Amino acid sequence: MECSVENLRFFNTLTRKKEKFVPLEKRKVKMYTCGPTVYDFAHVGNFRTFVFQDLLRRWLEYRGFKVAQVMNITDVDDRTIQGSRKENIPIKQYTERYKQAFFEDLEALNIKRVEHYPKATEHIPDMIILIKKLIEKGYAYRGEDGSIYYDISKFKDYGKLSKIKIEELRPGARVKVDEYGKEEAYDFALWKAWDEEDGDVFWETEIGKGRPGWHIECSTMAMKYLGETLDIHSGGVDLIFPHHENEIAQSEAATGKEFVRCWLHSEHLLVEGRRMAKRFGNFFTLRDLTAKGYDPKAVRYLLLSKHYRQQFNFTFEGLKAAKSAVDRLTNFAEKLLEAKGEGYGEKIKGLVNTVRKNFEEAMDDDLNISVTLASLFDFVREVNKLIDENSLSKEEAEKVYDLIMEFDRVLGVIGEVMKEEKLPREAEELIRRREEARKAENWKTADKIREQLKAMGVILEDTPQGVKWKIERKG
Ligand code: AMP
Ligand code: ZN
Fold first, then answer.
1. Is pLDDT at 1 greater than 70 in this prediction?
2. In this structure, what DSSP letter does residue 170 have?
């Protein structure tokens, strides 16, 4: 696929504008996506963001970019420590369970594997190096509790992503927890000195006994694997402040370079108008839904079918509609494999070119999936009509099939479609007659019919459960 960057545009949270996407290196994209905090099963709200990030990656690949992507695993933070202490098991054992579940869910949702999944606990020395650099450069200081804080008054661009204006900086006012509101925009912890709440979760290091703050984890792992400037960084909108604001402050203060060129944030999945979140108790995990008999492909479709910058409500009606959309696409692909009509000529080329153009233009426009899917379903309707009228030839159907599979490399909802094996009617009749002959112990006739069927490409096998058949593949 030609690497077409001409029309590709993304909405950059930094500028609040749709901008032409130009990576630093031609044809290569360095992309960081904030991964899960493995303190519990992820809910489908979280997966809305992960599916969006997967769609983004797949679109970049469709457009011919080579993507180097990092998704971190936050396996030490306030929540993982609280969870493991509650169960009274080592944090590693606790987070491993949810990490594994997360990877199983990624697979079920057909989310492509990325290049690196670094774990925070395996990068403590790298974090120490970064924190020391911030201290040396005068951006960080040790508080009286022994923790090391980032002095936001020293970073002149603080607030450039979230657009918060800090009117009055209260010198020395600080937060030690990882998550807090804009009204509490104080100095934040890079390194948290051990306290009793941490139990046995700590590292003895040259900057003291303790553990890293959540924000420094991402800055460190992003720069370690992708370099000082990334093309894309993404996450849900709740991460804009303080997480991503603090990542910028840490990284740019340390390197003096722009940390991220394009920030993409996905809106929340809601339930009855409220963000789906663990703390509101209004969530479903993927496991909850599959246990109720829902197909993970339908969940994927539901999550990606609304534009990523639009909020929407999770409902079971929506999930059922998603299931029928997936079925419609799958049935369409199956029907294409069966089609062998008279041929529609030049007109089919016109339809194919139009749907491809619409699909690409809409996806290039900040992944405008609603327009993409609308034009795809228009196309499906038109071509289905042609198949029903017996107008589509085998060759034409194959071309359409290839196109649909190409689109599905982006959408990831159809997967492999097998040609349904159907017996020709005369073969059915022959099998019936052979059964009669066998019952009458007329072995000669039975063998003759077997040979006749073989010549038609139908292979028989007599089993204790009765006769079975398969169609011999040619070529
Ligand atoms: P966490 O595991 O809590 O760090 O969250 C993982 C990802 O899910 C982050 O990018 C969050 O912004 C995102 N997220 C959390 N809740 C929702 C939601 N209701 N809808 C969409 N994304 C969400
Ligand atoms: Zn992060």
1. no
2. -
